[in-house]
Design brief:
Protein name: Aminotransferase class I/classII large domain-containing protein
CATH architecture of the largest domain: 3-Layer(aba) Sandwich
Bound molecules: pyridoxal-5'-phosphate
Number of helices: 16
Pfam families: Aminotran_1_2
GO molecular function: 2-aminoadipate transaminase activity; pyridoxal phosphate binding
Structural class: alpha/beta
Organism: Hapsidospora chrysogenum (strain ATCC 11550 / CBS 779.69 / DSM 880 / IAM 14645 / JCM 23072 / IMI 49137) (Acremonium chrysogenum)
CATH class of the largest domain: Alpha Beta
Strand content: 5-15%
Helix content: 40-55%
């Protein structure tokens, strides 16, 4: 062993020995910091609601299928003002949050036979894959790469055309679900996070959005855009203002779809793009409430999903509490005075630490969400390393030696189509969860680890391969 390798081995041994005394730092968890939760506001709204039978009786009963009407109206006004579109409560359906909502959308508007594939932006929000798989699409998720501007439309169209070409001589496909009133079955689904994406942090440019809607129309595709970070954008430096510049209000895919008018063949007016919104990141994930904005026909069809027919729209009580805060403007004020400044600060702290501790190892990091803008948003920073070692190995060593949890790029590959878009040199870091000082400490620990890895790559790779062998052995004797 060379002198430098032996020094790094003993550094690693020291690191492992002190791991137990190091506080766990979790830069994988995509939750809001407890400091950003509006507990006082929610408590006030809940007390007002529960003191007035005119409000609490409907709030505690089964709700209408499309959701708590005052919240639909409040959201329509708020979203209309924000995006410069005409408020229309008929375009809003209340949901149980973005995850539950996708499950319902798939129940009503897709079919495991008639819908040929789900095109998923890669890298992807990893927890979306099981939702898509549970709807019958296991093995039919297709990774669609991004470039600097967002989803690569040429690549997507090529892939869709190839699939159509391969399947054109198959016998005509019957649908599994058949015709159901108020619903339609799309031939394709396209899943994206158009603004401040999880995990890449990217915002898709306007021209890409327009191209994507045109493409969806051409191939009878439904675009589901998880727009859960739209309100969480800020200038990279400088003061925050409540008025957002246009680069923080890029039209949603559903707005572009609306502006293009319905396709000739779309006689019922379902449209081809929906916005999947959520209160998780602007109030708290535990409220389990969100909304879909789409054409009125789509919203009606979504509200006819069996589980909403039986139980009414989900999260009725939470929706009523949130409605109070939306109408009074208190939630918006909370976002302006606490959430956006808090995230702006955390992002700056994390980026400073990355430039200091990680950049020296040749890491590439995206500085702004929208290309050529000065804005960032969301919860995540995506780094790409060029060290010739898989970040999965680094993530395992980070846990073992540094008590540090990070997301390695392979986690964000599209299930079942991993080979089409590999991310084994990437790392996702969340700056929303841990306290500010732990963001710096965690990134510093990662820098220390990268230093040791650079010194002695072989040892880390050997350790990783031993771990794999152990796993295989345990699986074999199970
Ligand atoms: C892109 C994206 N979609 C959906 C969700 C989950 O949303 P919800 O809590 O509303 O189910 C998250 C949470 O991290 C997310 O990042």
């Amino acid at each position: 062993m060379s002198a430098s390798a032996s020094a790094s081995a003993s550094a690693a041994a020291d690191a492992t020995a002190t791991n137990a005394t190091k506080k766990t730092i979790n830069l994988l968890r995509g939750w809001p910091s407890p400091a950003l939760l509006p507990a006082g506001l929610l408590s006030g709204a809940a007390q007002r609601l529960l003191a007035d039978p005119a409000v609490y009786v409907p709030a505690l009963q089964y709700g209408p299928d499309a959701g708590y009407q005052p919240l639909r109206e409040g959201l329509a006004r708020w979203l209309g003002r924000h995006y410069g579109v005409t408020p229309d409560a008929g375009r809003i359906c209340i949901t149980g949050g973005a995850s539950q909502s996708v499950a319902c959308v798939l129940q009503s508007f897709t079919d495991p036979v008639a819908t040929r594939a789900v095109w998923v932006v890669a890298p992807c929000y990893h927890l979306m894959c099981p939702i898509l798989e549970d709807a019958g699409f296991a093995g039919r998720l297709r990774a669609t790469p991004e470039d600097e501007e967002g989803m690569d439309l040429d690549a997507l169209e090529r892939k869709i055309r190839d699939l159509e070409e391969r399947e054109k001589d198959l016998p005509p496909t019957e649908s599994f679900k058949g015709d159901r009133p108020g619903r339609k079955l799309y031939r394709h689904v396209i899943y994206v996070v158009a603004t401040c994406s999880n995990p890449s942090g990217k915002t898709m440019s306007l021209r890409r959005r327009e191209g994507l809607v045109r493409l969806a129309r051409k191939y009878d595709a439904l675009i589901i855009s998880d727009d859960v970070y739209d309100f969480l954008q800020w200038p990279i430096s400088g003061a925050l203002t409540p008025e957002r510049p246009p680069e923080m209000r890029v039209p949603r895919l559903c707005d572009i779809d609306l502006a293009m008018g319905f396709e000739e063949g779309d006689t019922e007016g379902f449209g081809n793009a929906i916005s999947n919104g959520s209160f998780s990141k602007i109030a708290g994930p535990g409220v389990r409430t969100g909304w879909v904005e789409a054409s009125p026909a789509f919203v009606k069809g979504l509200s006819m999903t069996g589980s909403s027919r039986s139980g009414g729209a989900p999260s009725q009580m939470s929706a009523a509490i949130l409605s109070d805060l939306v109408h009074s403007g208190e939630l918006e004020k909370h976002i302006e005075t606490a959430v956006r400044p808090g995230l702006q600060r955390r992002h700056r702290i994390a980026m400073d630490a990355i430039h200091r501790y990680i950049a020296p190892f040749g890491a590439l990091v995206r500085e702004s969400s929208l290309l050529r803008s000065h804005t960032y948003g969301g919860y995540f920073i995506w780094l790409t390393l060029d060290m010739g070692i898989q970040t999965k190995v680094i993530a395992e060593a980070a846990l073992e030696e540094e008590n540090l949890i990070i997301g390695s790029g392979d986690m964000f590959e599209v299930h079942g189509d991993e080979a089409s878009a590999k991310f084994d040199s990437a790392i996702r870091l969340c700056f929303a969860w841990e306290p500010e000082e732990d963001l710096v400490e965690g990134i510093r620990r990662l820098g220390d680890l990268l230093h040791r890895t650079q010194q002695d790559k072989g040892r880390y790779e050997a350790q990783a391969s031993r771990r794999e062998q152990d796993k295989d052995y345990v699986n074999a004797i199970k």
